[in-house]
Write a structure and sequence with these properties.
With 304 residues, this protein is of the alpha/beta class. The chain has nine helices and 13 strands. The chain has one domain: UDP-N-acetylmuramoyl-L-alanine:D-glutamate ligase.
Amino acid sequence: MAKHVLVAGSLHYDLVVNAETFPIADEYLPGHSLRYLPGGKGGNQAIAAARNGVVTWFAGRVGDDEAGGILAANLEAAGVDISMLQRGAGEVSGASIAIVNPFGDFGAIVVSGANLSFDPDAVTMPPEVGYLVLENELPMDANVALARKAKTAGVLIMLNACPVRSMQEDLLDLTDILVLGQAEAEAMAGRSFSSPKVALEAIVPFTDKVPRIAIMLGAGGLVHVERGGRPEYHPAMKGKPESMHGAMDFFVGALASQMASGSEFEAAVHYGQAAASVFMSTPVERRDLIRATQVRARLGEDDR
């Protein structure tokens, strides 16, 4: 029987701008396609899990401002249970400003706002939940408290350790699945991944701490490994990216949906990669239409 997923993480109201390149210090550049989008890694991952077919709960915090209402409504519209969403009186909801170039690369500045006041003591583990998904946009102490609460309840923990920050060893000790981007993995490994071969070599020592690891290498594909097993490399799937902004979050949510449904890790990783591929190649205004059927179709294309 499929388990549910609880995502605890950030919510941001994103301002997304397309530009030909990224500015350097003191430079003014023209931009276009200005959009306001509900985001935040936690919110994105919860929506991805729900759209890939698993019952999903969300725990996070917004302010009592207009942006907070928009973020809450967006989660509800995607079918996410927000009964544990915290609303801080007089607080300002989190926000980010993201710049996307014509190749789909992006950079962002995050203002955490109400996310920093998140209270882990207000979160309970629903009895049906099989996985707790965490990321690095909530305070570290909150993540550790939630992970300990999950372990006590017999809930497995998936940590998307992004963006880069120093990690508490006890959080890694509690983690069952670790998902990293290339920058985060390089920071943890203390070396640059000049090729997928280097990433395959570097990923194995991570299993001393966490039993299952997946590292997304952007256009370079991904690598993954289970403790005691052989590391595997999957090249990037075909398709021109519209934008990579949010692709890792969609991967994480899709991966969690499959693990909670009982898939083996390698199959779940491959599904997550297909989900991220569909997400990246879909125009931003149509991404809320992505469902498991499109992901399975992309898997079929990749297998041919």
